[in-house]
Amino acid sequence: MTTCAACHGKLELEIxxxxxxxxxxxxxxxxxxxxxxxxxxxxDVELNCGCHFHWQCLLDAYQITQCPNxxxxxxxxxNSGVDEQxxxxxxxxxxxxxxxxxxxxxxxxxxxRAYPEERKARAFLEFCREGDVQAVFDLLDxxxxxxxxxxxxxxxxxxxxxxxxxxxxLGSLYSGLHTAVSxxxxxxxxxxxxxxxxxxxxxxxxxxxxxxxxxGADRLFGVHSELLDIRTLKDADGQTAAMLAxxxxxxxxxxxxxxxxx
Length: 262
Description:
There is one protein chain. The chain is α+β, with helices and mostly antiparallel strands and 262 residues long. The protein has helices at 55-61, 103-114, 119-130, 133-141, 160-164, 176-182, 186-196, 206-215, 247-252, and strands at 12-26, 29-42, 44-47, 52-53, 76-77, 84-85, 87-92, 95-101. It has a 4-stranded antiparallel beta sheet with strand order 4-3-7-8. Helix 3 packs parallel to helix 6 (176-182) and helix 6 runs antiparallel to helix 7 (186-196). The longest helix is centred in the middle third of the chain and has 12 residues, at 103-114. It starts with 11 loop residues before the first strand and ends in a 10-residue tail after the last helix.
């Protein structure tokens, strides 16, 4: 039987499930009985050298482009002939994914191990990419630390201004605004402009201001615009977010507001 090359355990992962066994009565009224059960799912990363790992074991032992077990070079050149990739067969609860490039994920995890203080800023970029307005606002409005009791990962405190102007060293120095523009996440773009640009309020659609007020973002309006205007940030190619606006984005969003002269 094939096992993990790092811990020699079965290539499985146990996931806890909560089950509602039905209502029962208490002195305070009806309640529900919750029991925990576990489900076993595959957890197998097969590298192109033939070695197998649990996903977490691979993250813990990962060495740049080398297998942590046999030391074979596991990097190959992508179809573009320029970029490196690390292809694997990943079998988890979502099924089997063959020839999956996991180099970006491994590089991200390695970077965060070296610079844990940037975890909050990198989470911010991911929320901008996904277009998750609520998550972006919550992260900016938070003091930077999660409650340890809820099992969530603790984020190192980071000033809001630093998060807003953070530029991704692994991703062409994109800021949150660059990321939202390139991903065409209009709601996130408006939120970032409200919080950290010099754009006049009358340039914002009424529905955007109303939605931001309902979100609670009104207390952050323009708080940092006197210190920075994220529209001026440039990526590794010297491009502002306005320069990244696609024709498709221009059809659904007034891209002129992305320019400092707007």
